[in-house]
Structure formats: structure tokens, C-alpha cells
Amino acid sequence: MKTAIVVGLPYYKQTKLRILNQLERYDGEVLVVDEYEVLAGLSGKEKDSHLKLVGIQSLKSVDVLAQIGNLEVENIISFSDRGLLLASELREAFKITKGNSTEVERRVVDKYLTRKTLSESGLSHIQFKKCHLEELTEATKYMDYPFIVKPISLTGSLCVELIQEPSNIKGYIERCRFNKVYDSDMPLLIEEYIDGEEISVEGVVRNGKIDFFGICEKFSSGAPFFIKLGNDFYPNHNKKDEIYSYVTKVIQTLGIEYSPFHIELKMSSNGFETIEAHTRFAGHIITELIEHGTKIQPFLYYVNSLKNDTIGYSERNDSRLYSVKVLAGREGVVKEVFISPEILTNPRVISHHIDYQAGQKIESELLPLNYVGYVSFTSKDKQESLYFRQEIDAKSKIRIG
Asked: Residue 361: what are its φ and ψ, rounded to 5°?
């Protein structure tokens, strides 16, 4: 029997568990290959013999090939930014055609190439340039403020910052140098700041055919870091026709043929602008919102679609919202993370989780705010969703020493 290979899982444990729970339902062999650290604590999830987890020292081609080289491989995919390029390279080595090419994955992973491609096609109209960290002061000397600076291939708001005046640049450089993920050799993308509402579009591309699952509206910490603090997922957004039309052009222009997608946009007074494009599903627990809003299991759906070309998704006429409210805290030792039982027993709540227990330390090398928990829930409309977010805030407590 052929084996579907998954190289690279997201870091967030609740998302890893969701992926594995869905892959357990796959009608075929599945081998999940990732670094020991990422797979730690997941071995008990191998409930069925057809789903196996294999730990390796590093997520590199030579280490993965040592595990899969003798297998009859059905496909090779990744659900993490860490594995997207690797999966495409391995597919090409195994002559597997159902998946994006390495050229396409590079075009999407590299934010500068994404912006350049969209700009040349007329789908982006903002000013942008690339430089290295040590060149930032000189490169922005004649730029109009404000502007956004971000590494060309990091995600999750890492080292993304709105620079509002020249004095901000020194602080940005220092934060990048102390960030344990950012490599100072990685170029930066400098972009004109786009005002407007931020959304993301979620779905899957199968041999060029696009299945739109829905649209997320984003709640963030605001300037200067724009850390995501929640989402409202609309299976049936009232502006979906014009949004989907634009995103279709983005997907086709970038050459995306086979993959999940998570396309982040700004709806500005001048029209749509792509912020970032990803050939993976959205992070954190947005896939849970998708699952409840569409009644499909997105990770399983995508793997099944690679095996069965006839599978398809029909949009649901669902006017409800499926939302997540993120609880976030700054660096320090956690004293308490509390969500009132009055919230947790509310019938609109889908799920909840607390990521830090008392005594654990929150590190701030990555982001100025870190997720400490969440509540996902459903609402009949945007106003009800906003009201319940406020109620969660009022009836939750985060104490950090």
C-alpha cells in the first residue's frame, strides 16, 4: 500500500492534535515525519497502525529520505511553513505531480517575491523594497512614514512592525538581533503601510480548482506589532464574491495548483491588497472554526482530495459566525490564567484551552505578546460576537509576575 507522507507539523499543540485526529480517519497509510522536539508528547496519538509518527534530528532532506526512501510514496505534503519547500523538493525527487512546484513554493514563502509577482501583474500597487538588517537605516532614509518592515520568510507576526518615525528603526533593529528565530542574514521586506480592514481567505486548490471555505475577519493588538488576538470566520461573507474574485487572480498569478491556502488581505479605500500568501492552512485554531463552519475536516479533506480527484466542496448557506478570542500575556512567570465557568458553560462555546499553568514562564524573545489561552465560540452575527468577546475579557484573568 502506498503511504502519504507529512513532513512538518505546526508548533501549536492543539493544532497538531487536530491534524493527527483527522489523519486517523484517512483511508490509507500515513507517515508523519518531524523533529523529535515537535513530536514530543504525541506518540500516544498513534491509535491505528496506519498512522505512524517518526522523529528525526532535523527537518532536512537527507534525514527525511532516510525514513521514506524505501517506501512506495503516494504523496508528500506539509502543514507547516517549516516543511513546505522541503515537501516540494521531495515531491520532485519522487516525480510526484500533485503538489506545487518548488518554484511556486519559493515564490510564496519569499514575501519579496510574492510582492514582486503581484506588483508586476497589477494586483498590488504599493511601494516596496528589500534590504538587510544592517542596511535598514540607509534603505529607509527617503521613504515616507509610516511603513511596515518584516523578514521575507518568517510568519506569525515575527519581527513585523509598523515604523512610524525614524526613531523607531533603532528599536526594531535591536529587537531583531535579540529574536531567537530571526537570522540576521535573512533579508527584510519594506512595504508601504496599507490602511483598512484585515481579512484572510481560507480554502484549498486542487489541480487549479479552488474550493473557498470562507473568510476570516481579524482582531489584532494594533500598531506597531499587529499580533492576532482573534478571528471571526464567515462561511458565507457578504462580500465574498468580490473577495473571491480577487483571491482567484492572486492564486492563479502565484501559480498555486495543489495546496491549502491562507491569503491575508487588506480591504482599503483603494481596493484589495495582499498582505501575505501561504500554501498551508491558517494557524492557531482557525481550522477548528473552518471545521465547524463548513462541516468538513480540512486536513483530512486535503489529503483525501489528493487521492481522489472527484472529491469536492459545496459552499454552505450558513449565516453564523465561528470565532476565537485569544488570551495573551507579556513576558514573566504566570501567576494565574482564569476563565470564568460562566463563560465556559455558555452554550455558544465550541472549545477552550489554557496554554500556560501557574509557575510556567512566558518567554518574550519571539513576540511582545504571547498566547496563553483561547475560547472559540459561535454567534448569530458580528454584534453578538463582539459582545461575547467583551464578556470573555470581563470574566477572564491573566496575572503574570
From this structure: -105, 135
| pLDDT of amino acid 278 | 97
Architecture in CATH for domain 127-192: 2-Layer Sandwich (3.30)
pTM for the model stands at: 0.95
DSSP 216-262: EEEEE--TTT--EEEEEEETT-TTHHHHHHHHHHHHHHHT--EEEEE
Q: Locate cell 514562564: which residue?
A: 361
Round the average pLDDT of the chain to a whole number and report it. 94
Q: How far apart are CA 125 and CA 95, in angstroms?
A: 37
pLDDT over 90 (residue 308): no
Q: What is the CATH number of domain 321-401?
A: 3.90.1170.60
Distance of CA 14 to the CA centre of its chain: 14
Reported as a single tens digit per residue, the pLDDT across 216-237 is 999 999 889 888 999 999 999 9
Query: What is the per-residue pLDDT for 364?
Result: 67
The CATH number of the structural domain formed by 3-96 is 3.40.50.20
Q: What is the pLDDT of residues 40-83, one digit of tens each?
A: 988 765 555 789 999 999 999 999 999 999 999 999 999 999 99
Domain ranges of the chain: 3-96, 127-192, 194-319, 321-401
Positive or negative torsion for Cα 283, 285, 286, 292? positive
Burial class of residue 293, CB neighbours in 10 A (0-12, 13-18, 19+):
buried
Could you name the CATH architecture of 194-319? Answer: 2-Layer Sandwich (3.30)
Q: How many CB atoms lie within 10 A of CB 350?
A: 16
Query: 184: pLDDT confidence band, cut at 50, 70 and 90?
Result: confident
